[in-house]
């Protein structure tokens, strides 16, 4: 990087840091100014006092707008240096890379702590500006709280030293200031890149949605604080209610987006794993939904006001607690989501305790002044069931947060000199408690809706409940009967031939486990909730009360989600049972037992039966930018980290996208493994589970999902061979000489040297691309050999031998099926004898050694291990192709290897000459486990020397496939829930707006 560019980019960084400082200071000034205005507003102000209040509010408003502009400037500067690959900045170098498309640069923006804090701050600015405009009455006390929160958050990215202590982590720090490089002269040309697991479209939209949900929890909290502060103990509820509603919807959607990302990206087999960070966000959402219900109950009958105050405060404090858990490093390795500690744990704790303590003090001071009702709640009252439902949500949240906080308890014990090693509980610990919460929520949501929308007539209520229960039990019974009698349809078993004894509901009625009865109860409760809420919804729609339907629709969505979760998680069915008896690991822990029992090995091009299907592993594929399908890696020739040449025309549905020899862009970090499925009726589909590589040591497997109407098939890889970085475990190289039509013996195979083929322009395009000069090559040939295994199955290899000036290039060819590599090492022009280098691989020897050298003339037969290799022929490059190609010339040796059952496999190692240099392009037969290249060519004798490697380890993947029944009910329920929230939010906002415009609020 030149000096002017460096100075210019550092200027952007310095400007960004200046914006951070301005935003921090202006937030403090705005908070204090709003505080003075709110203090004067507490009592009924006279005209003179009102003028002062208005003056302070104008002053505060100006500084909040300055704060907002500074925040936007910070966002712009940070994204600017990411977009322009300014790797002198630590944040850019640590989270971005040259190969990232712009949408993943957006993900890189908030991958780190500083960027995600900035995202949170950004949403607060947007919400603050909206609140200033829509609710003038509450502006001063609310915005004082808002601006104070902003000041705390800005301090997290301030990055300045005050009294010897560092305050915050500066996102604009340089590499040399961070100690990564010694000075500005050593700025890297590329970054370390975005975590491959985060290179997913959900990671572009999930964090902004989640942090908007975080930001929205501040609004009801600020209303509560403002109400207590101003002595308006009841007035805050109406304006806060629509914000609580939209906050519940968006935070819930953000959580579910994270679950769907995990479902598509991680390989634990689901969408929720009770990770501590997941839990720490899930609990505030539960409490927020509980507060929403108590606020609705208060609006209806003036009860549950104190509960609403407590729950709204608890929601925001729990958001701060989740931030502390995620960012302080206290979780250690207990969570895959937590950030590394940037030294902010002290600041985060102060942030948490400040708002928790101030809220408690303020609530305690005003507690006795908060109005309460002395009326006792009756069992048949709507408020009773709402309160019970809210209590259920709180208890469910309490169980989760206590279990999640065990690492915190360990640290507290350690601080007091005690030793505590409480381990985070397993997912089953949460499941066995939360399932009962789901049962109760479903039941209460059904009963509560009947009570909410009609007069407290016991006879009418009993009749409605009886009808709903009757329909529920009839439907549930019919469901079980169908499941037991057919084993198909709603059972979602993977095979149409499954009998009743294998039906999932047979387990329910057989008494095998209490867990199955619990599942049946949850299914029945969910069905009851759907039936009850549909009944209420029908009455509302009949009365044309569309705006009142939000609650019923949202409850239907929740019930659908519970049923979808029950089936997709509780009855997830593994199709890949290992029936071979072979253990892939001797460890005896739970994960190893699952690996041995529920995974199968697929060898390349060998169909393997699993439950209901036959699966064939078809090879490794790459993602080519601008092409709608994945492309087999053997059809691409890599010329750079993210560039390759097409070895054949790339067409899709008759449309040509790239011609042979075209340069294409690829995503090098992703390798896709093609699996072809065929069911018992002959229906076929293809899945592409992938492995993402950020480095040779860091690989992550991601599943592929085949979606059907009634279920998903979920497949991921747990092991692969060969490793894309380490390659195959080749046996020592063997060299074999052969002439055209000679036979070579390679392990159990017979290889026939069919002859050579002149490499055409497109085949030599890769060498033209990388050549350094424009010299014309002298000569190039391709030898064609046939390899026969012990079963006389034929495979073909075609190593090349190219001479340009004094340089020799002899690319090998490989029979991947045999693990056999053949190359022409030299050619004797006098005897027409070729010396072939032949090598294969061995699982016990991962180091490649020199190949075995064998001499052969055309039509000769060579023996190598258990193979016979026949030197079929030699083919020269055509003069026309030589003229079309500048600086490259070569031949391919065409070799046929006979595999099992005399199945022929073709191999074509190449021999290339480029600008006086020689290259030996190997060919690999993955199915045979053979790698072959032309080591040299004897021009006088016509003899080729092939280098051959073989391996006993065939290309394979170890994979697991699961059926996820009724998972679409879960996703559909999510949309129904959000739709219901939307209707309810609009209604609450319209109500507030009417009251505000009347001057009441």
UniProtKB/TrEMBL annotation:
Query: Where is each Cytochrome c assembly protein domain found?
Result: 115-328
Q: Biological process GO terms, please?
A: cytochrome complex assembly
The Cytochrome c-type biogenesis protein CcmF C-terminal domain, residue ranges: 356-574
Q: Where is the signal peptide?
A: none
Which terms does the record give in the GO molecular function aspect?
Answer: heme binding; heme transmembrane transporter activity
Name the InterPro entries on file: CcmF_C, Cyt_c_assembly, Cyt_c_biogenesis
Where exactly are the transmembrane stretches of this chain? Answer: 15-38, 59-83, 117-134, 146-165, 210-229, 241-262, 282-298, 305-324, 344-364, 384-402, 433-453, 465-483, 516-540, 552-571, 966-985
The residue stretches assigned to a coiled coil in this entry are none
Q: Which of UniProt's keywords are assigned here?
A: Cytochrome c-type biogenesis, Membrane, Transmembrane, Transmembrane helix
Quote the cellular component terms of the Gene Ontology held in the record. membrane
Pfam families to which the protein is assigned, alphabetical: CcmF_C, Cytochrom_C_asm
- The yes or no answer to whether the keyword Transmembrane is present is yes
Protein family membership: Belongs to the CcmF/CycK/Ccl1/NrfE/CcsA family.
What is the name listed in the Swiss-Prot or TrEMBL entry for this protein? Cytochrome c-type biogenesis protein CcmF, putative
Give the organism, scientific name: Microscilla marina ATCC 23134
The organism's lineage is:
Bacteria, Pseudomonadati, Bacteroidota, Cytophagia, Cytophagales
